[in-house]
Design a protein that fits this description.
This protein has 3 helices and no strands. The chain is mostly helical. The radius of gyration is 20 Å and the shape is extended. The mean pLDDT is 79.
C-alpha cells in the first residue's frame, strides 16, 4: 500500500453549482464587474424574506424592527470574515450580539 498517495479530490458537480444560480438557466454568463455578480437562490430567498417582512430601521422597539435587528445580528455572527470589529458599531448602528 502506498502511504504517500494523496486522497483524490472530489470532482466539482458543475450542474449542481449552476443550478444554484437562476440567471444561468438561459446559458449566458455576464462577467462585467462585481456589481453585476450573480447570487445563488439562497441569497435571493433570504432577501425576499427580509424585504417582505422586516425592511425597516433596526434597533427600534416595534416588532418588525426587532426582527430586522435579530436577522442582521444573526448574519454578523455567521459571517466568518466580518469586517466590523465586535466592539464597535457598524454603519447600520447595530452592535453584533
Amino acid at each position: 500500500m502506498n502511504m504517500s498517495a494523496k486522497p483524490a479530490t472530489p470532482a466539482l458537480d458543475i450542474d449542481f453549482v449552476r443550478a444554484q444560480f437562476p440567471p444561468l438557466k438561459d446559458g449566458w454568463v455576464f462577467l462585467e464587474n462585481a456589481g453585476g455578480s450573480y447570487v445563488p437562490q439562497q441569497v435571493i430567498d433570504r432577501t425576499v424574506e427580509y424585504m417582505s417582512d422586516s425592511q425597516v430601521q433596526p434597533n427600534w422597539e416595534f416588532e418588525s424592527s426587532r426582527r430586522a435587528t435579530d436577522r442582521i445580528s444573526a448574519g454578523c455572527r455567521r459571517s466568518p470574515t466580518s469586517s466590523t470589529p465586535r466592539s464597535t458599531r457598524s454603519s447600520s448602528g447595530l452592535r453584533p450580539r
